[in-house]
Amino acid sequence: MKSFDYVIVGAGSAGCVLAARLSEDPACSVALLEAGGEDESRAARQPNQWPLLWDRAEAWGYATTLQAGYNMRSIPCPRGKALGGTSAINAMMYVRGHARDYDHWRELGNEGWGWSDVLPYFLKSQDQQRGASAWHGVGGPLAVSDQISPNRLNLAFIEAAVAAGHRRNPDFNGEFADGAGLYQVTMRNGERCSTATAFLAPARERSNLHVMTRARTMRVLLEGDHAAGVDYFDGSQVERIYAAREVILSAGAIDTPKLLMLSGIGDPAKLEPHGVTVRHALRGVGANLCDHPGTALVLGLREVDQPLPTSILAEGGMFMKSARLNDGFDADIQFFSVPFVPLQAGAVGKAQFMSIVVQACRPKSRGQVTLRSADPFDTPIIDPRYMTHPYDLALQIEGLKTAREIVSQEPLKSLIANELLPGATAMDDVSLEQHVRVMSQCIWHPVGTCRMGRGDDAVVDAQLRVQGIHALRVVDASIMPQIISGNTNAPTIMIAEKAADMILS
Q: Which one of 280, 292, 445, 470 is the catalytic residue?
């Protein structure tokens, strides 16, 4: 009988961190199960190749349902399927969000999750190239570095934003969040530094850590109201593994709620139609799905550049407060300057255009993840309900107008030949709304489907324990009670660092 103290499901951005931290205690035995394989491909390591990973074995190949807010389009939802999870296929931006994000989590009833509580865990992870400060740590496993060779178009974007009246920001993770600058990245020596590289690889020689790849978890084994282990498929048969202390789900905001529902934990109204026996009614499982929308201003270039291997493509960016909708946070809209469009073509050297992508920092549209069937091998139904709240639409339109103002400033203006989309005739809000609904995608930041907090729709408490089930925790982006004002990878790593301390203490 296979038995470990802790069984972690999912070797992604959170799971690799947990496995490394928990196994630091030689008295603990840890099993880490990952449905995908190793993250050894050259494309996964080379920064400018990340858009090519969406359709490879390193990704699940998920897509949303037809989105009414996006003119009935299905949107790709890439999720990592390899050691490192989505940190093995993402754009490598290191963004923590704003202090107010975490203070808001605490205000929602989650004690211990305010900014002063979580900052030490951000610092603990970091090996910051710029050195230690009140905002940054050194000596941690995760390399956080400046970009090696940012493209001239991204540098021009920053200067044009300053000319348009925005402040220059040399550090989005520093004293203030708003302003224009270059994103820092999770890279070491010009290569991707995923959580598998940073946290898991150094820990794999420990005798108390057992890493299992190609192990697809099918359900949590429940004995009454106690999580006793999991069943997984090893490629030929179903195996069972037991947890003496805890089962920890770190499969992400899509697959963690799916696993809970397959195990009979969820909303009876969504389980019973599939013939799933309800073991514990928990209405919030799979609910509160939130993701960042992204809308591009697409620009023709006078001269076409090609991305260097060390480029993350979306190198430059900006945060700004809304002129009309500010709600007390440091910023409401995020921008990405991308000189290589389409992205997949840019990754192999054939990009022809530039885009400035606009993202509402804290969208209010909410969707859900539900079961398609009781078959563990069936894909879940992913319905983010993008752009169904008017707040989100207003921010996207405001962001597009701001992007145009930046493009009209030197030194960027001289590098742009014309605006291709939405085009010079789309000047009024009605035309811009049509562009948003026809062209928007997502930024691949799903969160919230196992919300931390109180109330009927909460799934985990502030200790990340699943409500009503003993020895079962969720540790990944699904626990976020409110989406972060920025990219979600660094916050997910922080969640795992904090969870490890909770569990070991």
A: 445
